[in-house]
Amino acid sequence: MSKHLNYISSILFPQKGIGLNIYIEKLIDEKIYSKDYSSSLKLLIKRIDEFSKIYNVSIRTDTLSKSLLNKFINFMRSDTYQLQHNTICTYFSRLKTVLSRAQADGYLVNISYKDIILKPEQNSLIYLSEDELLKIYNCPQLSDEANRVRDAFLIQSYTGLRISDFSNLLCENINIEKNIIYKKAKKNRKIVKIPIHWIVREILEKYDYKLPKLPSIQAYNYTIKRICKKAGITDKIVCEYEKGMEYKQVIKEKYELVSSHTARRSFATNLFIAGLPLPIIMLFTGHKTVNSLLMYINITNEDIFQYAKTNTFFYK
């Protein structure tokens, strides 16, 4: 109750603003976020410093106007940096999180940042089919670390767990008799219950239900790409993206686009293709709205056709 009252008080009677990078450094020092998230905040600090020096402006929570934010976004798109659109979206997402927290902490914040919406491009977001997941499952001659990453990726792909939730998975979260994994999601604190897939059961038994620690997220993503390449997941994918002020088109092999989050997308997409209704999938993934879930489901027109033609609607 007191925490709720403090939040209301911070909105009604805000303090003065604070230097944006000073506040971000404060969050990092207080270890508010995970190491990986804090690392991304350090990169954000670097970009803000560079922007401030070039344009000779002081960035504060109370003076960060909509026009200044747009200038910062265009700065990251400029020829100097030519950051990809999705990278800029990540920076901006971190920035919004920081500003929202600053306001909750009682600092005066210019809320015009809420008027700016950057949506990530969907073209390079892929999922792995059940056949491709089996290729990963059967991939031979992996190192010990690669085995751990492969097993973690498969558990994610058949449970929809985020990497942060997988890392905190305990024996107490697994009920073998009821064939259920349950977990309170770290991101939204929502409790989800997920049936245990037979591949997940085999992997859990392999580790005696005590999952090994994983490398850093950077090493994890690098390793799963190498595993997918070795497993023959090399279909050509046309990727269109915005870099700097231009739209570019490149052809990549599918394994190059795989990351830890691909597992969660694969889970949602494969359940949808298998015929599970969206509300049931939402119970497993923890999404609150259908629209947010649909961002995770990657299907082609051919997928839709194959799914639709088996529906009883088309038969006597």
The fraction of residues in strands falls at 5-15%
* Total helical elements: 14
What is the oligomer described by this structure? Answer: single chain
Please, how many domains? 2
State the CATH superfamily name of the largest domain: Intergrase catalytic core
Distance between the first and last residues' Cα: 60 Å
Remind me, CATH topology of the largest domain?
A: hpI Integrase, Chain A
What does this protein look like?
The protein is mainly alpha-helical and 316 residues long. The protein has two domains: 2-115, DNA polymerase, domain 1, CATH 1.10.150; 130-309, hpI Integrase, Chain A, CATH 1.10.443. The chain is built from 14 helices and five strands. The chain has helices at 2-12, 20-29, 35-55, 66-77, 85-104, 130-137, 144-159, 163-167, 198-206, 217-230, 260-273, 278-285, 290-294, 301-309, and strands at 174-175, 180-184, 191-195, 236-243, 246-253. Strands 1-2-3 form a three-stranded antiparallel β-sheet. A hairpin with a 2-residue loop joins strand 4 and strand 5 (246-253). The N and C termini lie far apart (60 Å). The mean pLDDT is 84.
